[in-house]
Structures are given as structure tokens and as C-alpha cells.
Amino acid sequence: MPPSSLQYNRTMSERLLSVEDAFVAKGPGVLVMPRFTAASPPRGKIAVELRLPDGTTRAVQAEIEVAHMRGPLPPFAMYRLHDVTPADVPPGTEIWSVA
User: Fold this and answer.
1) Is the dihedral of CA 70, 71, 72, 75 positive or negative?
2) Which of 70, 60, 68, 56 is CA-nearest to residue 22?
3) CATH code, 12-97
4) DSSP letter at 92?
5) Edge-to-edge order in the sheet of strand 94-97
6) Distance CA 92, CA 18 (A)
7) First vs last Cα of the chain: how many Å apart?
8) Contacts of 52 (CB under 8 A, 6+ apart)
9) Coil, helix or strand for 93?
């Protein structure tokens, strides 16, 4: 079969964020920085993969927390990671979507 006729049924993983800081805040899990803008973030938990600076990976659930601010720009948002501590998410950890 020629390469141009191959069918791909996979969705590619995407790097969502490189963590600069992780901290405990009101609510379950930990929040990670930096903040980002999200015009229409998904609701509920999503599966993500943490890729730590030491080369290990870990599958976790995440939610997008949106600040309730008004104005012409999309509101700031942050990832909230479940079942981890700030020590589990050192700076340089990458958060990837799960394909």
C-alpha cells in the first residue's frame, strides 16, 4: 500500500504544560503553575501523563481550574492534579495529554 493511502486512527499526545511550581490549595490534589488562558476548557477530570525530570512517568487525573474573572480576555486557568503531592511534581515535570 503506498504511504499516501495509509490510515491513521491514533490521536497524538500533546504537551500541555511544563511545571514551574506545585502547591496545595483549597480543594483536592495540587495546583501547578504557570497559569494559562482557556477560552473553553473541558469540564471534569481528564487523564494525563506526568513526565518527570528523572525520566519516569506517572498516569494521573487532572482538572482545569478556571479563575472567575470578568474582562475581554479569556480567564486564567490552572491544572489541578489528583492523587499527588507537591513533592511528586517537581519543577520541570511535563504534563501530557493521553492519546
Assistant:
1) negative
2) 60
3) 2.40.30.10
4) T
5) 15-18, 94-97, 46-51, 57-66, 76-81, 30-37, 21-24
6) 6
7) 26
8) 58, 90, 92, 93
9) coil
pLDDT digits (tens, 9 = 90+) for 16-72: 999 999 999 888 899 999 988 877 777 899 999 999 999 999 999 999 988 766 666
DSSP string, 24-91: E-SSSSEEEEEEEE-SSPPPS-EEEEEE-TTS-EEEEEEEEEE----SSSPPEEEEEESS--GGGS-T
* Domain locations in the chain as residue ranges: 12-97
pLDDT score recorded for residue 7? 54
Q: How many residues does the chain have?
A: 99
Residue type, 31: L
